[in-house]
Amino acid sequence: MSQQGTSSVKDVVDTLEDLAESEDEVTVGDVTHTFGGHGFGPLMLLPALLVITPLGGIPIFPSLMALLIALVAIQLILQRDRIWLPKALEKRAVTDEKVQDSADRLRPVARMIDRVTGERLTLLVREPAPSLAAAVIVLLCLTVPFSEVVPFAAILPMAAIAILALALTVKDGIWMLVGLISSAGALFGLYLWLA
């Protein structure tokens, strides 16, 4: 699998919207197949962003997305060329209306993100940085089922995951630094909350 970044987050949202328009239900497998050629970043960014939308209030949805993100992150650490997901996970689906609504809500956020990202400090998004970021993402994913006890609390680790995945998607080293700092903050905040 290519690890080339997409040109923008708006491209990711547009592709998700196109997928929703062409299907009655959008499966995890559909998303993986659609974004598979763009690298690992969008395959971790998109589920994290979906949890930040109202879809994140659906019980078990954040944990399911965390599982998907962790599987992708582990394969990034292993430097696999193709993404593999269990068939049961690939068949999980959300209605096209919910995906379309989420894409509509993400569009203004995507435009804002695209204005503040670019290929900067690319040294911080070259190996071993992606593997380090993927390891941090796996750690954050492990916290999601515990944070899901409180509605929408999974937004905290998912926001940190989204920032790291964004950095990998658009090859922006500044956002990689922001993502690592926010990950430390999210983990510390969750530690305090659970303690």
Mean pLDDT: 85
Strand content: under 5%
Query: In sequence order, what are the helices and strands, one letter per element?
Result: HEHHHHEHHHH
Tally the helices: what do you get?
9
Tell me the number of structural domains.
1
The helix content is: 55-70%
Keywords:
195 residues, mainly alpha, two-stranded antiparallel ribbon, 9 helices, 68% helix, disordered N terminus
Structural summary, described in words:
The chain starts with 8 loop residues before the first helix and ends with a helix. The protein has one domain. It is built from nine helices and two strands. By secondary structure, the chain is mainly alpha-helical. Helix 4 packs antiparallel against helix 7, helix 7 runs antiparallel to helix 8 and helix 8 runs antiparallel to helix 9. The N terminus is likely disordered.
